[in-house]
Structure formats: C-alpha cells, structure tokens
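Note to self: keep these together.
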Amino acid sequence: MLDRRSPHEDLIDHLVRSTPLQRGEAARVVLDVLAYFDETTEDYVRRRHRELQSQGLRNEAIFERIGQELPHRAVCPPTLSARQLRRLVYG
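Structure:
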C-alpha cells in the first residue's frame, strides 16, 4: 500500500507535539503559511494595493509603502525549467 502522508507531516507532527494545536488545526496552519509564502510578487502588489486603497490611501502613498515593504517580503521564486535547474547546479 502506498504511503499517502503529506510531505509536511513531520512539520504537522512537530506542531502537535510542541503546541496546544490539534492535528487538523496544525495542518491548517501549515497550509496557511505555505499559501502565504507561495504568493507571487505580482499577486502581493495587487493585494496590498487593494488593501491600502480600501484604507483611503492614494496611489502615491500606496506605491511608496509597497516599495518599502517588498524588500522585507518573502516571495515565491519563479518556476524554473529542468534546464534552468541544471544550470544552477552545474553552471
């Protein structure tokens, strides 16, 4: 029988052991964190623009703020082809 464990089961197990979270809650936290870090730069900029615009900020202030936030934001790297991955390894 094939093992159908998530690739993140070790992390989920760790959260269950080290926090008061139940297994389902820990799995949801892991998925939420992964989704957060999976957001592309383009998606992040669009989302933050909407959020800041809804707070009444104008574009000049919005773009300045987003520009300050981006260097501190972990963003998803681009998808790399097998050739690009090989070039990273072998030059």
